Amino acid sequence: MDLQPNILLITLHDLGRQLSCYDRPTFSPGIDRLASEGVRFDNYFVCAPQCSPSRACLTSGRWPHRTGVLGLVGKWGWQMNESVPTLAKALGAAGYDTWLWGFQHEHPNPAALGYQHDPIGYRRGEVPKITADYVGPRFCQWLETKPTVPWFCAVGFYETHLGWPTAAATGRQLRDKSVPPWLPDSPQLRQDMLNFDQSLHQADRQVERILETLDATGQAANTLVVFTTDHGLPLPRAKCDLRDPGLEAALLMRWPERLAANRHCSELLSGVDLTPTLLELAGVELPGDMDGASFAGLLTGGDYRPRDAIFAEQTWHDMYRPLRGIRTNRYKLIQRFNDFPENALPRDFYQTCAAAPMVGRMLDETVPARCEFYDLAQDPTELRPRVADDPKDLPAPGRELHRQLEAWMHRTNDPLLQGPVPSPDGTMPD
Predict the structure, then answer these.
(1) Where are the alpha helices (DSSP H) in 365-429?
(2) Is residue 97 a contact partner of residue 151, using CB atoms and an 8 Å limit?
(3) Using CA atoms, how far apart are residues 333 and 328, in angstroms rounded to an integer?
(4) Which residue among 13, 314, 333, 370 is least crowded, i.e. fewest CB within 10 A of its CB?
């Protein structure tokens, strides 16, 4: 490689794959441009269905429980262990200038993650300073200086996190709007999806502006642009849930000098593999003790070993809710480790229009610790699991998934194997 690429990592919140380039009913022309000019990954899943643990995994190449982030940073004392290798640290050591523009949620101090520059200076609670309309123009002004040192910039927008701006809607717009297929239809949920679109459009405009600025400054050809999100939509059976709507994530990459345009990859991929992949594409040696494996060879024609399965986890969010899961292309197994409501909704869901008619019945149904086995070919919306107190009572594919899940937990020293996991500040599980 003659010249290391600049690397631009753009992240949104709670997006899943709710983009028109993934054939979802919304409008996102700026982000869709990345799909048409680069690579769209259709079977990519993150490692946790909530913000901090997922982001810690994406930026370290380690499973969430191996980063120190088993819950939200800033709550109960969770934060990335400073000994954990990160994408920014590895790129900085290789001579990159490393910048954080806007949002991150892995550590209270961005420098501990390897960022040399933090021009926005976001601190917890300062939401206006991490919205797209605040961060985007400032980042574009910096791009216009045409920095010459290879740079890595993590650009984090607060959109599409709740609360969404309210979109004025006619009756016809509400009738025409569709809702996710795993949820019951209602006018309130249709309004929520319109409000979500309004938030997405704000971020999409700034993504488009960034791409135009890269073009205008002559930096587009040798900039690897990566667009992704931390987890699925902030709706029941999605956020804070190991079913697909909580783990599915958009992943788009564009690098005109190296990657073919308008390519779709259907291989099963995990968020733990993102950092190793970006480091290999940049020609940077991978730090030791990463859990993920690079899929750069899938893109460049080099060595690539397909995944048979991905793993996922949740331990803490608004409450203690320990879950572990494994998914293949055909099957999924979710292990619940204690009794809690089937849909323990994150508190921000209560801001939605659909909350009032949906919350009561969803919070009233407590589900015991158990195994849930899904045949995704027969049950793509994951509404009809085969359940068992003892995994021996599952069909043969479910028993095999349980064996692999237990082996993964032992191999990675999952603290859940020792019993309930207290938070760093000593808060004990309910």
Answers:
(1) 396-411
(2) yes
(3) 9
(4) 370
Domain 310-417 - what CATH class?
A: alpha beta
Enter the pTM of the model.
0.96
Q: Is residue 1's pLDDT more than 50?
A: no
Q: Of 33, 103, 113, which Cα lies nearest the Cα of 69?
A: 113
Question: Over the range 202-214, which residues count as b (16 or more CB within 10 Å of their CB) and which as e?
Answer: bbbbbbbbbbebb
List of long-range contacts for 114-121, beta carbons under 8 Å, 24+ apart: 114/86, 114/87, 114/88, 114/89, 114/90, 115/88, 115/154, 116/92
Among 220, 218, 217, 232, CA closest to 180: 232
Cα–Cα distance for residue pair 101/203, rounded to 1 Å: 14
Strand 263-265 versus strand 44-45 pairing type: unpaired
Buried b (16+ CB within 10 A) or exposed e, 54-75: bbbbbbbbbbbbbbbbbbbbee
Of the candidates 332, 335, 344, the one whose C-alpha atom is nearest the C-alpha of residue 417 is 335
Asked if 192 and 17 count as a contact pair (C-beta separation under 8 A), the reply is no
CB atoms within 10 A of CB 85: 21
Q: Over the stretch 176-215, which tens digit does the pLDDT of each residue have?
A: 899 999 998 999 999 999 999 999 999 999 999 999 999 9
Burial of 50 (0-12, 13-18, 19+ CB in 10 A): buried
| Tens digit of each residue's pLDDT (9 = 90 or more) over 340-381 | 877 667 888 888 888 877 766 666 678 889 999 999 999 999
The number of C-alpha atoms within 13 Å of 38 and in the hemisphere containing its C-beta is: 25
Q: If you classify domain 6-300 with CATH, what class do you get?
A: alpha beta
Two tokens at 31?
């982000």
Domain residue limits, the chain:
6-300, 310-417
Residue type at position 418: Q
